[in-house]
């Protein structure tokens, strides 16, 4: 039986929102292996100006990301969906090892296979330096 990650396409408003919450929970775990299991073995990503292909590269990318982006905390919001695609807007907060906080904003476009695994993820992200007092997302 093929590996599946419910809910499966075609998406409804309810199942698309479930998919968004599951992704948010996985990313907030900051566990690269756990996150990678939501993607196909040959998943393609564009994250800012970085292109990643496959689970092994996803794990490597996320390990490096969370070594730089400390105390990462993410919120995702469903923007739109179709049968097998979901678009989200998101923001996350993190800080450097020198203590500078950032809020990163962006949009993602997701494309899923029939088993509910994400085969493509395209993310556009911008960063804003913030003070500790400006933080909106608690750890």
Automatic annotation (TrEMBL):
Recorded hits in SUPFAM superfamilies, A to Z, give:
NTF2-like
* Membrane-crossing residue ranges in chain numbering: none
Kindly give the InterPro entries that the UniProt entry links to this protein. Answer: DUF1348 (IPR009783), NTF2-like_dom_sf (IPR032710)
Q: Which PANTHER family match?
A: SLL0781 PROTEIN
Which protein are we looking at? DUF1348 family protein
Q: Which organism is it from?
A: Streptomyces fildesensis
Starting at the broadest rank, the lineage of the source organism is:
Bacteria, Bacillati, Actinomycetota, Actinomycetes, Kitasatosporales
